[in-house]
Each structure stands twice: as structure tokens, then as C-alpha cells.
């Protein structure tokens, strides 16, 4: 739970007293130059200071904690303030949470976000947590010092509890009463002791979302809910052909629609240029209301020109993938251990299978959108985004404004799954706001969202295993043909084309003596998600289904086969699963097997399936129990066991594990973006279905393994194991092996 | 807060203005004097700033915009103002009285949040279901067709069952 802060990230505490007598405690990066108006209004109350605050203690002992980061459903708005509250020694019932904005400050080593980590995702969760705990601990030390001075007692003899300082003789003072005195004290010298984990009373306890009341009353503000500055509303029709251009348009009818103010066209990115602005060419209708903009857009008459390349189609891409894996081109070597060809020659049995996955969309419930007010020498952005650094940099680049003049508010986001790490929709808002010289609120419709995404790339995976006469796996070949994530994308510059699609260190790499991974990059024009997180990654699906196929072909227990692979005494190859990591994966597998009833003889026709995944310090196993009920698939039970290191809010993590499991099987059962004649065919949830209540598991069990290991971003490991566990369960129930996603149409076809 | 609709939503239309359409929202009377084809969703959001009713799609398939029209769960994205006129609409903002509605209370107890975007629509759909099915069975829960991309269904299921209990408790 502890992590030494690196010197570059050290910050110092500033405190001040507001005119109402509240203690305002801020935490500012060392060497950041103070700016005049850099205080988030959310915490300012009635005072003006130059602090970057985290905590405000009111005289009546209410505590307001500013939540750093972007809440997209992962629960940081609750978990991060919990760390501060823990060290502050207050009761959670005293605490209210407000979302902090993006806090741009120019530090000597470059831009610094005063209130959170840099970039879209935390680079080091342990460091971030440590900084928040230190913030809380330093405020507590001040309050202790204030009480010590008031009572003329040594601070060492005092303790803090539930927002009070308590002396050995029973005297008590609330934090609120000590606020004034604490604000006038000099900073505590030296490091302040943190609360030992054994004394935690908030961290590690399951707490509901800090803003649940706002969620259920409709008061919570998402990006789309912002109506400030009486912004005009923009709806854009975009070029449906990736890389295509605007041939001609007629906006006369659109301009006749009541409320339409303007029509503006703009170009898309140049062929092969990175996607660092808008995603596609477009014609925007600007109106006085959402309906005016949408109605106006319906009246546009636009002709688009496809890019010069032959029109892309899903069918042709799949044929090309098969041809690549059937052909003589060896492709790119991703990893080679031992001699796979030799193992194949020596093999007693060979097991081979191919698995195929489609393009996937993010399909966040709240579609992309942004409200941008460019008022002379300042800009204000309100949008559901997850990488405010990138948005700030983009607005500065497009407007010429200094970054210090760009304010970014971070409302709640209606899901992200990586979509909100991209800033294409912010770029559109900048273009339009500049053109009309008025604040603009950009609306994306569902149709826009499905047709213009950075899709998870599809792939065809060919696996082959060599078994010796005792059915041990002696050789493992995994070849994949797929459009890379890296194409045209700046964030992945310099990464190999297999990055995020066929990774060299995924199970069972390092555990089979002869192993070869090879990659065949395919050409595609569809924008791809450059995120390397394993969300939507298909490699684990192929591997975890294939392990089951090997087990069945060699008449062995699929769980035992996994455990045997993980337990063998082969020296771990550097950079792959260490013996300790393997022990953690074995542990979650075993726990999950018990929860889902693995190995228990069944007579009810239900099938059990299991799978696991390890990534970046997190270890997750999934189990499913399913049956076919008429022509419907019933998921009787799902189990998810995760070891993701230290956990702040178990209830929030349980939500993430449940949600990640269901989002994964939603994609696997139904998700497919397809193209014909160069354009995406899906336009709504009717042709891009998501999982519904009727299909979701009737029982869901989640277990979080207690751990004091370093915290890990669970997002990298929650998703990948769920879909193969479901496929394995479907096989157990039906003897139908699904090797092509989405599963549901395959299952219908094969049954 | 709801505003009266004296001022036009948009610059004066070119043709004769249509007859103002009366509508009751959360117990208050309003008139709509713009395009009668405009979906109720945009009247609620753009005009009244009742933003708890959310946009998710345009074809009744996601339920993020679910409101009660004369007590019945209805997607506001696909209900033209001309069809909504003369009816009584309840949005999430009008659900609670002095205390939270039991369904809202159950949602907090189950911590059915995740990203939270769809939950207002889920709550409105559950209110309608529990009026018709005070003791919902598995097949009744299966009729809840609102989409949740985050996959909060197990918590929503728990919340609906808890709400059913709360609604049965003597007041």
C-alpha cells in the first residue's frame, strides 16, 4: 500500500483560512509557479487563494474533499477521496466530495496537473495513492499541532478520531474548531507518519458511490448535461468512407429549418496523417437548439468521395486474413522460444484451431460531445473526457491560446472504455466554435458514434499445439493476421504492429519450451483504438478457448491442464509471469473453480467453463454456468475472482469486476462492426446490440482476493477472461465450440 | 428548475406558428410552441433543463430517456411533442417527494451506479414495472430492456428486488 514518492512528483502543502473560518488545505507541485486564479471554484467557497486544494474543513466539522481524476464509471470519485479521508481521520459520513477540474500549471519540467496524474490513465497507481494519503496526513498533523498549542500538551500524546483531536485526559476539539489555529501554524517539519494499514477504518471498507444521491435523482451532471453560455448546438454529418473527402453539398434546405444558424464544412485528416485532430471530414449544422441542429442535418444534401484505396469490406478482410495464414509468408516474429518445428515433428498429437473476432465499437451510453466557449483570450471546455492533458494541448494548438488560459471542467462521463482518451470530438468543437465565434455544444448521435469510432481491431488467430505421448504440451504456435492498432496513430509511434493484439508475454508464453508467435499485419482504413489496455483484446479468447480444446482432445481436465502449465518448474523468462505471479494466477483459478462448482458431477445439462488472465500485476479468473433453454442461452451463474493488489473501495472494485465481466460478454455475444463498400453498416443498437437484463447472469459472484501487493489497474485484466470462460461453458453445455465472434449468431447457426 | 415558456425556443419560424401544445411535466403545466415533431426528450432537456432524462439513441432501443407518460414507461426520444401533448409526464426529477422514491432509495442501497448515465432511465422503467408487478419474478425482470453498457445488471436486479420490498413495507 505504500510507495516512495519520486522526487519529481513531490508536492507541498499550503493552507489558508477562508473568511467563513473554514480550513482550506491544498497540495501543490513543488516548483510549480503560483498563478493568480488557479483555484477550482468548486472548493473556493468565499475565499480567493492560490492553492490547489484537496480538502476544506468547515467550522461545523463538515469536510469537503476535492476528487482528482476523471470519473467514467470506474469509481475514482469515491475511492480517491477515501484515501484522503483515511489519513485525515474523519468519518466518511462527515465527508462530501466535489469533482475537481483539470488543474493545468506550467511546472519547470513541463505541464503539471495540480489535482491529478498526468495523461489519461495513471502511470503509477501506488504513487498517486501515496500523494493523496500524504495530503490527508499533513492536514491531520496541522490539526494535531493546533490542538497541542491550544492545550499546551505535546502533540505526540494526542490522537485523532472521527474529525476530533482527543487528549489523554479526555479533552476534545473538533477539526472545525481548530481550523483557524491550524491555518496560522507553520508547516510541519519532516515527513508525517501515515496511518498503518492495520488501523485503516475507511480504506478497505465497502462504500457506496460518493455521488449516488445525485445519480438517482438525475442531478448528476454528465458532459451532455452542460448548457452553459447559451451555447449553440452543432450536429455533424461526417464522411462515411474512412479517409474520404467532401465532394459537394447543398445546405439550402437545411438553412430553411427553423433555428438553424449556420452550416460549416471541414476537411478530415490527410491520408496517412496521424489522428490528432478531427476523425473525418464533415458538414456541421449549427442551431439554436438540439432539435434545430438535428432537423437541419436531416435536410443536408451531401455527396462524399471515398478515398482512392479499394473500398474495404469485412468479407474481403476476413478472406485476406485466411490467405495470409495459409500462405508462405512467415510474417513478423513476435516471440520464439526453442524450436516449434522440431516439437511438431516429434509430436504424438497435434491440436489446431482458428479463432476469429470482428471490429468492435466502444458504444459508450453517453455519446461523445463537447461544449466549448472560446471567449477572446480564454477558453472553457466542458466535456466527458478522460485525457484532459491531451484536450488542453489540442485546444492550445488549434487556437494559439496559452494553456494556462484554457479551463477544463470534468463532469461525470457516461462510460469510456478508452473512447474518451481520444480527443477528436474536442477538435470538432474547436473548429466550430472558432467558425461561428460563439460557444458551441457539439452533439453526437448514436449513429455518429457507431459509424465514427476508433474501433478495436478484428483478428484471425491460428493456434497449433504439439503434444508428446504423455499429452504434455511440447510446442505452441500462435499466428495472427489483423489490422494493427498502430496505423496512423501518434500515441503508438515506434511500437511494433502486433502491439495490443498479439503480445509476446501472454499465457502460456514462458511455460511451454517451444513456442512461437508470429503476426501478419493487414491493411484497413477504419480508425483503430491505439489503447494497449487489453479491453477487447482477442488474444486471451483464442488462448483460453484453445487450452480447453487441447484438454478435450487429450481427455484431460481443463483446469488441471492450466494449473499444470502454471506450476511447472521451468525458469521464468524475464518479463513474463514470475513464479510469484504464477502463484497468484493459480490462486484465483482455484478460488473461481470452487465458486463455479468445477468438477462437480452434473445431471441438469448445465455446462461449466473457466478461463483466466494476468496482466500488469492483476490476476483474474472467470467461471460460467450456462444451459440452453429452448433457443435461449441462460447464464445461471457467473463468478469472477480477482487479485488486483491493494484495494481502496471493495464495493467499487466489485462493481468494476461485475461490469467488466458483463461488458465483455456483451461484446462477445453480440458486438460486431462490419463494413461493406467502404462504410460501416451499423447505425444503432438495433444492429449493434448490447447485452440486456434478460441475457445477463442470474447470479453473479465476485471475490476480491485480500492482498497488500501494489495496486494494479484492474481494467487490463477484467475483460479478457470472461468471454472464453463463457465459450468454454457453452461447449460444456452443448458440445458446440464457438470459434468465431460474435457468439450469438454463431450459436444460432450451429444449433 | 423548470421555466415558463413565454419566450420562444428558437427565432420566429418562417411560416405561421403552430398552435401551442399544452403538456404537464412533473405536475406543472407548460406549452410548446415550436416544431410539433420535436421529440419530448429535447423539450425536457433543452427547454426545461431537466437533464436527468438522457439521450442514448433515437430509436427506442436503449431506454436512457425513459420517462413516465400517464404513469407508463416511455422513451422520450421517440415521442413527438404533438403526441405527448395533453398527457402527464413524470421525469426522474419529479419522482421523489419529500423523501426519495423507494426505487431511488433501493438504487442507492444496491449502489447501482457504475458510470451512472443510464440509471435514471433504469429507475423510471423499474417504477413502472413494480407498479404492474409488485412481486417481480425472473421473467418480469427479464422484461426490463433498458441498456447498461457498463454491465450493472446484477446490481440493478438487486435494486429492483429491494425496491419491491420497500414498496411493500407499510408506510
Describe this structure in words.
Chain A has 19 helices and 30 strands. The longest helix of chain A has 27 residues, at 125-151. In chain A, a hairpin with a 2-residue loop joins strand 6 and strand 7. Chain A has three domains: 7-205, 2-Layer Sandwich (Aldehyde Oxidoreductase, domain 4); 223-307 and 368-443, 2-Layer Sandwich (Aldehyde Oxidoreductase, domain 4); 314-360 and 455-750, Aldehyde Oxidoreductase, domain 4 (2-Layer Sandwich). Chain A is α+β, with helices and mostly antiparallel strands. In chain A, the strands form eight sheets. Chain A has a seven-stranded mixed sheet with strand order 13-14-11-21-18-19-20. Chain B has 171 residues and is an alpha+beta fold. Chain B has two domains: 21-94, Roll (Ubiquitin-like (UB roll)); 102-168, Orthogonal Bundle (DNA polymerase, domain 1), CATH 1.10.150. Helix content of chain B is 32%, strand content 12%. Chain B contains six helices and five strands. Chain B has helices at 40-47, 81-84, 102-109, 119-132, 138-141, 153-168, and strands spanning 21-25, 28-32, 66-69, 72-75, 88-90. A five-stranded mixed sheet of chain B has the order 2-1-5-3-4. In chain B, helix 3 (102-109) crosses helix 6. The longest helix of chain B is centred in the C-terminal third of the chain and has 16 residues, at 153-168. Chain B is globular, with a radius of gyration of 17 Å. Chain B starts with 20 loop residues before the first strand and ends with a helix. At the A-B interface, helix 5, helix 7 and helix 16 of A face helix 1, helix 3, helix 4 and helix 6 of B.
In short:
The complex is a heterodimer of chains A (751) and B (171). With 751 residues, chain A is α+β, with helices and mostly antiparallel strands.
Features of the shown structure:
heterodimer, A: 751 residues, alpha+beta, Aldehyde Oxidoreductase, domain 4, 3 domains, 5-stranded mixed sheet, 30 strands, 28% helix, globular, disordered N terminus, B: alpha+beta, Ubiquitin-like (UB roll), DNA polymerase, domain 1
Amino acid at each position: 500500500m505504500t510507495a516512495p514518492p519520486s522526487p519529481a512528483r513531490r508536492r507541498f502543502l499550503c493552507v489558508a483560512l477562508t473568511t467563513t473560518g473554514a480550513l482550506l488545505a491544498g497540495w501543490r507541485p513543488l516548483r510549480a509557479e503560483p498563478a493568480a486564479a488557479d483555484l477550482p471554484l468548486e472548493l473556493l467557497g468565499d475565499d480567493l487563494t492560490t492553492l490547489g486544494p484537496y480538502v476544506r474543513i468547515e467550522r461545523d466539522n463538515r469536510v469537503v474533499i476535492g476528487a482528482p481524476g476523471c470519473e467514467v464509471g470506474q469509481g475514482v470519485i469515491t475511492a480517491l477521496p477515501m484515501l484522503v479521508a483515511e489519513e485525515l481521520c474523519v468519518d466518511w459520513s462527515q465527508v462530501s466530495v466535489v469533482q475537481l477540474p483539470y488543474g493545468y500549471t506550467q511546472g519547470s519540467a513541463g505541464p503539471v496537473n495540480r489535482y491529478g496524474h498526468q495523461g489519461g490513465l495513471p502511470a503509477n497507481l501506488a504513487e498517486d495513492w501515496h500523494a493523496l494519503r500524504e495530503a490527508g496526513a499533513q492536514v491531520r498533523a496541522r490539526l494535531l499541532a493546533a490542538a497541542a498549542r491550544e492545550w499546551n500538551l505535546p502533540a505526540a500524546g494526542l490522537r485523532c478520531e472521527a474529525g476530533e483531536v482527543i487528549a489523554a485526559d479526555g479533552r476534545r476539539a473538533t477539526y472545525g474548531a481548530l481550523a483557524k489555529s491550524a491555518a496560522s501554524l507553520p508547516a510541519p517539519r519532516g515527513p508525517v507518519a501515515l496511518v498503518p494499514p492495520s488501523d485503516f477504518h475507511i480504506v478497505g471498507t465497502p462504500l457506496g458511490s460518493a455521488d449516488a444521491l445525485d445519480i438517482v435523482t438525475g442531478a448528476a451532471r454528465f458532459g451532455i448535461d452542460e448548457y452553459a453560455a447559451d451555447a449553440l448546438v452543432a450536429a455533424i454529418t461526417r464522411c462515411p468512407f474512412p479517409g474520404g473527402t467532401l465532394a459537394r453539398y447543398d445546405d439550402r434546405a437545411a438553412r430553411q429549418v427553423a433555428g438553424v444558424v449556420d452550416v460549416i464544412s471541414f476537411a478530415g485528416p490527410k491520408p496517412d496523417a496521424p489522428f490528432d485532430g478531427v476523425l473525418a471530414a464533415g458538414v456541421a449544422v449549427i442551431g439554436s437548439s438540439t432539435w434545430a441542429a438535428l432537423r437541419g442535418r436531416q435536410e443536408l444534401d451531401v455527396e462524399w468521395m471515398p478515398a482512392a484505396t479499394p473500398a474495404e469490406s469485412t468479407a474481403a478482410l476476413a478472406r485476406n486474413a485466411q490467405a495470409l495464414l495459409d500462405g508462405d509468408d512467415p510474417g513478423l516474429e513476435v516471440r520464439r522460444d526453442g524450436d516449434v518445428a522440431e516439437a511438431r515433428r516429434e509430436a504424438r498429437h497435434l491440436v489446431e484451431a482458428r479463432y476469429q473476432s470482428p471490429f468492435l465499437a466502444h458504444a459508450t451510453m453517453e455519446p461523445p460531445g463537447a461544449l466549448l466557449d472560446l471567449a477572446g483570450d480564454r477558453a472553457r471546455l466542458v466535456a466527458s473526457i478522460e485525457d484532459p492533458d491531451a484536450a488542453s494541448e489540442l485546444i492550445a494548438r488549434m487556437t494559439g491560446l496559452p494553456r494556462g488560459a484554457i479551463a477544463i471542467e470534468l463532469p461525470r462521463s457516461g462510460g469510456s472504455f478508452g473512447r474518451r482518451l481520444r480527443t477528436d470530438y474536442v477538435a470538432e468543437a474547436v473548429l466550430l466554435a472558432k467558425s461561428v465565434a460563439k460557444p458551441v455544444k457539439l452533439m453526437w448521435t448514436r449513429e455518429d458514434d457507431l459509424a465514427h469510432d476508433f474501433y478495436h481491431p478484428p483478428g484471425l488467430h491460428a493456434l497449433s499445439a504439439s503434444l508428446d505421448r504423455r499429452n504434455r504440451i511440447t510446442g505452441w504456435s500462435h499466428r495472427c493476421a489483423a489490422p494493427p492498432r498502430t496505423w496512423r496513430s501518434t500515441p503508438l509511434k515506434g511500437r511494433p504492429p502486433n502491439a495490443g493484439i498479439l503480445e509476446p508475454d501472454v499465457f502460456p508464453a514462458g511455460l511451454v519450451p517451444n513456442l512461437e508467435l508470429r503476426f501478419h499485419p493487414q491493411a484497413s482504413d477504419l480508425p483503430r483504438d491505439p489503447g494497449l489496455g487489453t479491453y477487447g483484446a482477442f488474444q486471451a479468447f483464442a488462448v483460453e478457448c484453445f487450452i480447453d480444446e487441447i484438454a478435450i482432445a487429450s481427455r484431460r481436465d481443463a483446469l488441471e491442464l492450466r494449473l499444470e502449465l502454471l506450476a511447472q518448474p521451468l525458469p521464468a523468462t524475464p518479463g513474463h509471469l514470475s513464479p510469484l505471479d504464477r502463484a497468484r494466477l493459480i490462486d484465483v483459478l482455484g478460488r473461481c473453480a470452487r465458486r463455479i462448482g468445477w468438477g462437480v458431477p452434473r445431471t441438469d445439462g448445465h455446462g461449466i467453463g473457466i478461463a483466466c488472465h494476468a496482466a500488469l500485476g492483476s490476476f483474474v479468473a472467470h467461471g460460467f454456468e450456462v444451459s440452453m433453454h429452448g433457443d435461449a442461452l441462460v447464464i445461471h451463474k457467473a463468478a469472477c475472482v480477482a487479485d488486483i493488489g491493494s484495494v481502496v473501495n471493495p464495493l467499487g472494485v466489485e462493481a468494476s469486476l461485475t461490469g467488466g465481466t458483463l461488458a465483455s460478454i456483451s461484446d462477445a455475444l453480440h458486438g460486431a462492426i462490419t463494413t461493406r463498400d467502404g462504410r460501416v453498416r451499423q447505425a444503432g443498437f438495433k444492429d449493434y446490440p448490447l447485452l440486456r437484463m434478460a441475457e445477463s447472469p442470474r447470479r453473479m459472484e465476485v471475490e476480491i482476493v485480500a492482498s497488500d501487493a501494489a495496486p494494479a489497474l484492474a481494467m487490463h485484466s477484467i475483460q479478457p477472461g470472461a468471454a472464453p470462460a463463457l465459450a468454454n461453458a457453452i461447449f460444456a453445455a452443448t458440445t458446440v465450440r464457438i470459434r468465431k465472434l460474435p457468439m450469438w449468431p454463431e450459436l444460432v447457426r450451429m444449433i | 428548475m423548470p421555466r415558463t415558456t413565454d419566450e420562444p425556443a428558437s427565432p420566429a419560424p418562417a411560416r405561421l406558428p403552430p398552435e401551442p401544445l399544452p403538456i404537464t411535466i412533473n405536475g406543472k403545466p407548460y406549452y410548446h410552441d415550436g416544431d410539433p415533431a420535436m421529440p419530448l426528450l429535447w423539450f425536457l432537456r433543452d427547454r426545461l433543463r431537466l437533464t436527468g432524462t438522457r439521450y442514448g439513441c433515437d430509436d427506442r432501443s436503449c431506454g436512457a430517456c425513459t420517462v413516465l407518460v400517464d404513469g407508463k414507461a416511455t422513451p422520450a426520444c421517440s415521442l413527438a411533442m404533438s403526441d405527448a401533448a395533453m398527457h402527464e409526464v413524470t421525469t426522474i426529477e419529479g419522482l421523489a417527494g419529500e423523501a426519495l422514491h423507494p426505487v431511488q432509495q433501493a438504487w442507492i442501497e444496491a449502489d447501482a451506479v457504475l458510470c451512472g448515465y443510464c440509471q435514471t432511465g433504469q429507475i423510471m422503467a423499474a417504477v413502472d414495472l413494480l407498479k404492474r408487478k409488485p412481486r417481480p419474478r425472473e421473467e418480469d425482470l427479464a422484461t426490463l430492456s433498458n441498456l447498461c453498457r457498463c454491465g450493472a445488471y446484477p446490481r440493478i436486479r438487486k435494486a429492483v428486488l429491494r425496491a419491491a420490498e420497500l414498496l411493500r413495507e407499510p408506510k
